[in-house]
């Protein structure tokens, strides 16, 4: 595994075009995607969160076939060009395994018997979609000194994987409080009024209302020591790119969903407006973390841009507890937490206090350990980062 990691993280002079690195990485990514797709096709009840219609209407088998052939050709090219054969041979082995499991002809049987599933297909689709959008933009307009396989990329990918796999559980946990309230409340007329507005208006209302809530929740996560321990995990990302947005403690993910999307559902907003919001936010979150170093000078005071959110993650003293908004910087201007120096970017990212351990499981347990302290909370500011 470490040999593979070293190859993916090869120094710049070993990654030049024509050295078999690009083809090797492309073959490796494609073969992993193909293998994952075969697993979804073979065990849909356990791994297919996207439901039967998607598998019926999307040309998944054709795409898989093309992907496997492309992976095979790219792996052959990498083997021919590159002295180090680890990317080429690993990709070949994964393609062989995917073929042995049936490849595009793998049997798909939705029995509908399973109530619990892992969203493996959701993960693969997310990865392809966001990767195709952001990797090229980051290569062109990002900080070039930061490679694709930068520090801690594996940890962030694991956050991305676990978050997608547990999509069912997270949705269930965050939807339950709202559903309970919905069942016990009357006053449908207000909800009818909300739903009767034009969808575009509803969409912007949702964007604004969720941002107000998000601003307050986000600020609480910074202010209250034990909450900060959860949120500090998100801030511990040492490098910023589209993948860094997924580094978030599961408890925080549930809290955020439960306080943003679900109340909107409760207020009666129509489903198309809610879905549009969910899709936009999903891109937005990747966008504001992305390594895209463009200065959107005309709009950056009205809409959150990468530079604005990068300052929220900055290690500079001035970057502590500023820029909490996710959509509209005006909230930070109103509450006096706005910080955006002309054209500058932070010199680095991360948290100093508390010291966050490395590794997914260590980070998962880290905030929970706070409650096991036997001695009284000696200093309330102990856990904050200022
Ligand atoms: Zn924060
Ligand atoms: Zn962030």
Describe this structure in words.
The chain has 18 helices and no strands. It has helices at 2-8, 21-42, 44-47, 52-57, 60-81, 86-100, 120-141, 153-165, 167-184, 188-196, 199-223, 225-235, 250-259, 261-267, 271-289, 306-313, 330-335, 360-369. Helix 2 runs antiparallel to helix 5, helix 9 packs parallel to helix 13 (250-259) and helix 11 packs across helix 15. The chain starts with a helix and ends in a 17-residue tail after the last helix. Bound molecules: zinc ion (2 copies). Residues 234, 289, 309, 313 line the site of one zinc ion.
Compute the number of helices: 18
Distance between the termini: 38 Å
Total strands: the figure is: 0
Helix/strand order: HHHHHHHHHHHHHHHHHH
User: What structural class should be given to the helix and strand makeup?
Assistant: mainly alpha
Helix content: 55-70%
Instruction: Please give the radius of gyration in angstroms.
Output: 23 Å
Number of domains: 2
Average pLDDT reading = 88
Bound molecules: zinc ion
Strand content: under 5%
Tell me, briefly, the overall form.
globular
Main β sheet profile:
none
| Unreliably modeled segments | 378-386
Write the layout of secondary structure elements.
Layout: H1 2-8, H2 21-42, H3 44-47, H4 52-57, H5 60-81, H6 86-100, H7 120-141, H8 153-165, H9 167-184, H10 188-196, H11 199-223, H12 225-235, H13 250-259, H14 261-267, H15 271-289, H16 306-313, H17 330-335, H18 360-369
Protein traits:
single chain, 18 helices, 386 residues, 2 domains, binds zinc ion, mainly alpha, disordered C terminus, globular
């Amino acid at each position: 595994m470490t040999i593979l990691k070293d190859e993916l993280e090869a120094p710049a002079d070993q990654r030049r075009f024509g050295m078999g690195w690009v083809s090797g990485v492309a073959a490796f990514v494609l073969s992993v995607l193909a293998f994952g797709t075969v697993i979804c096709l073979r065990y849909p009840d356990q791994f297919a969160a996207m439901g039967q219609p998607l598998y019926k209407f999307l040309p998944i088998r054709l795409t898989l076939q093309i992907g496997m052939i492309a992976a095979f050709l790219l792996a052959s090219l990498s083997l021919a060009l590159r002295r180090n054969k680890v990317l080429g041979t690993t990709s070949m082995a994964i393609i062989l395994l995917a073929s042995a499991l049936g490849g595009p002809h793998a049997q798909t049987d939705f029995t509908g018997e399973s109530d619990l599933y892992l969203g493996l297909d959701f993960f693969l689709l997310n990865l392809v979609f966001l990767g195709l959008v952001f990797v090229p933009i980051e290569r062109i307009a990002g900080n070039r000194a930061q490679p694709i396989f930068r520090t801690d990329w594996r940890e962030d990918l694991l956050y991305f994987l676990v978050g997608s796999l547990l999509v069912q559980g997270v949705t269930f946990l965050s939807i339950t409080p709202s559903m309970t309230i919905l069942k016990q409340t009357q006053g449908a007329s207000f909800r009818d009024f909300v739903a009767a507005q034009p969808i575009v208006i509803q969409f912007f209302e949702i964007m604004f209302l969720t941002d107000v809530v998000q601003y307050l929740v986000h600020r609480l996560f910074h202010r209250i020591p034990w909450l900060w321990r959860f949120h500090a995990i998100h801030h511990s990302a040492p490098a910023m790119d589209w993948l860094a947005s997924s580094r978030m403690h599961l408890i925080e993910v549930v809290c955020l969903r439960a306080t943003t999307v679900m109340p909107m559902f409760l207020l009666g907003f129509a489903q198309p407006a809610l879905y549009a919001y969910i899709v936009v936010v999903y891109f937005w979150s990747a966008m504001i973390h992305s390594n895209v170093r463009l200065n959107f000078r005309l709009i950056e005071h009205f809409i959150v841009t990468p530079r604005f959110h990068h300052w929220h993650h900055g290690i500079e003293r001035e970057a502590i507890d500023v820029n909490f908004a996710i959509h509209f910087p005006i909230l930070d201007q109103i509450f006096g937490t706005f910080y955006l120096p002309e054209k500058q970017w932070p010199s680095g990212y991360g948290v100093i206090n508390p010291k966050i351990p490395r590794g997914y499981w260590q980070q998962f347990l880290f905030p929970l350990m706070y409650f096991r302290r036997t001695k009284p909370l000696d200093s309330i500011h102990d856990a904050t980062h200022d």
